[in-house]
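hey so i finally got around to running the thing on that chain from the lab meeting. sorry it took forever, my laptop kept dying and i had to restart like 3 times. anyway pasting the input first so we r on the same page abt which one it is
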Amino acid sequence: MLARRRLIAMLPSTLAGLELLATAVIVLDHELLVQYANPAAENLFEFSQRSISGQSVRKIFDNPESLISCVEYAITNDCTYMEHDLFLGTPGHARQHLDCTITPVEAPGSGGEWNRMVAEFRPIDQRLKIARDERIIDQTEANRLLVRSLAHEIKNPLGGIRGAAQLLERELERPDLMEYTQVIMQEADRLQSLMERMLTPNRAPQLSLVNIHEVLERARTVILAEMPEGLVIARDYDVSLPLLKGDREQLIQGALNVVRNAAQALEGRGRIVLRTRLARQVTLARKRYRQALLVQVIDDGPGVPAAIAEKIFYPLVSARVGGSGLGLTIAQTLVGQHGGVIQFESVPGNTCFSILLPLKEVA
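ok and heres what got predicted. didnt touch it at all, straight out
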């Protein structure tokens, strides 16, 4: 704790570091006057550092009693205090539901006495989102093992079934009965192809520099060929995005599965938008990245049914009659192998699947 306090207390030398944090940070003096607010705090509370500098928290915030109580507890006990259910807002704006951490810090030359407080704020919905992403990561690994085991269990007898059908066909005296053996062999081939797709995510990525828009254009072309009438796939690309280091074929398969999922939800009639943007200060797979690629697949379909919303990436979970429930599972696994994650938000008339892929330094 003492090391952390001294590290934070090296103000203003550490202010540059606070500028980059996604967590909202406000530094107070012993009279609860604001000495500093980082950009994340400006965005969260919708004020500017210039407008609040030197102002009391009593003037800046509506109903600041809970925040002041947290600060007083940290002062009295000379310890870090965490509040997980704080409501705080500024005049003219809605109150925010926040996690809050108050840390007393000492400045150089203070004789070991605290004379500043660092208040860190994180929206509760952001904490829940991080927890959900971590659950997705854990579930993706479980899905991968389940899919691999299932694929092997099904794949092994398929060759025997097809071979037996071929032998049976040779023994048939009535040509019209061959129709049934052909059905057996065709279905065995279809299942064989499905098993191969299920096993695909277990192949190690073959890394190269990839243009994400070429990946999306490939997926777009395939889906429009599958559903040529009644489906519109619009583009909203940020052409300035850098190249991504990844496995081109796996990224195509992942994007294809997500776009196909949207097209199937529309039953081949409706509008899909493929959007790309640069995301900043993103946490993926429990790691913090300064930049990430954001790919959004947006459709105007009926939305994800509430009954399967929490299980949408689980294998064998599908809202469609006859759906395999493997497309999104495989897509999440492929994206996860690149250090990324797939998230979604859905209401009737607007469903958005977001693929986040970290941008790492390219040697």
